[in-house]
Structures are given as C-alpha cells and as structure tokens.
Amino acid sequence: MNHSDLLRAADLIRAQAAARVGDTFRLHYHFMPPAHWMNDPNGLVYYQGYYHVFYQHNPFGPRWGSMHWGHARTKDFITWEHLPLALAPSEPYDAGGCFSGSAVAADGLLHLFYTGVRMEGDKLVQVQCRAISQDGVHFTKDPRNPLISSYPREGSADFRDPRVWRHGGAWYMAVGSGKNGRGKVLLYRSDNLSRWDYVGVAAESHGTQGAIWECPDLFPLGGKHVLLVSPVEREPRRVLCFVGEMDYAAGQFRKEAEGELDKGPDFYAAQTFFGSDRRILLAWMQSWEGEIPTQEQNWAGAFTLPRELSLDAAGRLRVAPVPELKQLRTGVVFSSEVDLEGWSGGLAICDLQSSGLEAILRVDMHQTTADEFGLLWRTSTGGEGLAAVSVSRAQGELYLDTTKARRGHRGRYVCKVDPRRGELEVRAFLDRSSIEVFGDGEAGSITARIYPDDPQLVLDMFARGGVLKASLELWELAP
Ligand code: FRU
User: Is this structure's pTM higher than 0.70?
Assistant: First the structure.
C-alpha cells in the first residue's frame, strides 16, 4: 500500500475504535485523540488562519506503537477539528515510525519535518525527513528523503525531533541527540529547506541535565532566546528551559539562566507554534512513567492547556494560560471573599461529570498571617484528599499535593512564588482527569493527571497558623 492508502486504512481503524472509547476520564476542554494513544505535540504551526497541531499517535491501540502523525486544527483553542492522519510509516526509511518534529509554512506550502525510524538488526536508525502539503491536510513525502541520513561525530544514534525555524534569511534546524551521557542540540542550516548543512553543537548538558535531549525548541522571546529540551535519564524528567542569546555566527546558544518549565509529573515534549505572533506552547499531558488508567478505556494522552510565554522585566520566563480560555467559563459555582482561620469544611461541590472547573484564589498578602493556606479537593465518597493546592508564605512556594490520590502519580510538586507581592494569584484548572496550577510568579506551573473514581469533588479551604484573607472564584468550564 502507498502512503495515502495506509493513512486511509489507519483513519478507518481509528474511527471504529472511537466508538469503543470509555468516557469515565474523558477530558472536557483539553485536546485528546478520538481514540487510542498519543504522545508529543508535533508540527505546531499557525497557517492560513488556523492553529494546526500534529501529534505522535498510534491509531491502532491505546499504547505506544506504530508512530503516525495525528492532525487537528483550531481557531481559538476552544473548538478543535480532527483532520485525517497526516503521516504514516510507509517507506523503507520510516518503516519503523514517523517520530516527532515540526512544521513551517514557506512558498505557499506547509512543510513537515520529522524523524523517520527503521530497525537495522537490533538498532533503531533515525533520519530526518520532510513531507509537503498544498492544502494543509494531505501530505506527500519528499522523494529526496531522508534529507539528513546520518548523525555527526558529536552526536549519536539517538538523533531525532527536528525543529525548523527561520532567522535572517536562512532556515535552521535543531535536532535532539546526546553522547557520553550529555544531551545535545545539533544545529543545521539551509537556504532552501531541502539541503541541510551541519553547523555544530548549539547547546549541551553540563552533565546532570540528561543523557539525551529530545524535542528541542529554540525561539526568540522578549529580546532574548529560549531553548526548551526534554531530557532522558534525568530525575525528575521535566522539560528544561534555558534563557540566553543565540549566537548565529558561532552557531551556539549561550545560556544565561535555566530552570524547569513545569514542575508537575505529566508535562513533557513541549513545543511552541511557528508563525504565530504570540509564543504559545503545548505539551504532552501524560508521561512515560507510571500507570495510565485511561488505557483501560481505549485511549491515552492529551495536550496541556495552551500557554503563552513571555519574559518579565528581569528576563525571567513567565507562563500563563491563553486568554481565549475565558470563553470556556459557562457559570459561577462560587464567588466570595474569604476570611479564614483553620478549616472551612465543605465549601463547594465541584462536579466534573459534565464540565471542568477553574479556581482563582487571590490572596491579600498584607493581611494574611497564615503560614500555609490552600484548597483541597476530596471525593465525596471516600473523603480522601485527591489534590491539594497550597502556598507556604515562609518558603515562598506553591504546592500541588497528590500524595493521597489512589491512581496516577503521587507526589508533592513545588514551584516558587513571590510572597512579598501585595496580591498573590493562584489559578487551578481541573478537568475530568487533570489538574494544572498556575502561580503568577516566574515560570510557575504544575501539571498532573488525576483520576477521581467519583466525579463529585468536595472543596475545602484551609489556613494554618494565622488568617487567610482572600477572594475565591470558581468557574464551571464547558467545551
Ligand atoms: C519524546 C519522544 C521523541 C520521539 C517520540 C516517539 O516523548 O521520545 O523523542 O520522537 O517520543 O514517539
């Protein structure tokens, strides 16, 4: 079968599978495939009025397997339109799968760059390839593939996830790799998107930042450059972000600051959109480690909420959900001033059966004397805490605590907040099987999948060691 026949067959199999997807944990307002497995976002591109998203996808089952590229588009991040699958393994050079990559629009065409993989003996051979589309829906593989057929001396057989962008009249490609225990970003340059010259190692781990760097992304932001990589063999496995300068003459990214982009266990392979005037990011909201209860229901994986990146005056990276998400708000569940010491008792019922929830806690930090305060969601049946979002004033830290959850990752995840601010805002987005927490400090977000067996959650509030003066808003979010 040729490429388009293979795509049609896979589309058909997936459509049949969609009828057998269980709805217990299906998300209300996050993007997920109609059925079966997905991982990384791929080829994020703003093209002809739409945000196009592609994603690593096994259309044949709820586990990682034969990697295809799924495809969808949206104008507003609220309504998503699923499109036919874009890439299937069909050629000798990608017979083992079409791995992650990126997209650019040029000369009226949409170009996808991806890693073709194939087995040679017991080795997985990884090469960089391209597919092109005129209508933005149907893609033809470049007859010159693979465009890059072997890795340079500084790299290794782990050689994947091409990220292409334009700068100063030339095209650049960052490819993830690693050697001798150090993750690396390998840089290529091209004048025409088909012939690529190796430039050198643009950035590498200093030794404790992962042995392979997957899914690199490199882009200008607020007068600086930002490099994102997803490290293999680093604990915890979190997307790393570096702020610095890109020295194109030397082909090197010069790091000035570094950190983790999100502090939660279910955030990986982040990528930003090419061609949009804002820097919007999506990541895979799941992880390679741990159980995935939705597999019992014939699906796995989703995108995080779209997040807008910016740099603050001090050059620190900030992340916030895109403003479009306010359109999801369909009703107020609770809205009140809070003056609390101790436990509130059940404050509200949050029913995740038919819609999601956004909680906004605005804390008056001048009048608040509590050492630690926050919100706790528990299932009404068991009474166990499912997820707690809290702040320690003394530590200047924001926590997501899932240590009592029955399924999914259990842990206490931490990001920094600035307790000296007059007002501190914490936003938490709950969906049927996810929670995303945003502080308004630098790069403050925590993302985790949660799997409440009962969708009715009781919300309590607490303040320890003093008073909490705040306001709390709870919004129902429907797709
Ligand atoms: C990251 C990753 C990529 C690879 C893809 C395969 O999650 O391992 O490096 O291209 O997944 O599905």
Answer: yes
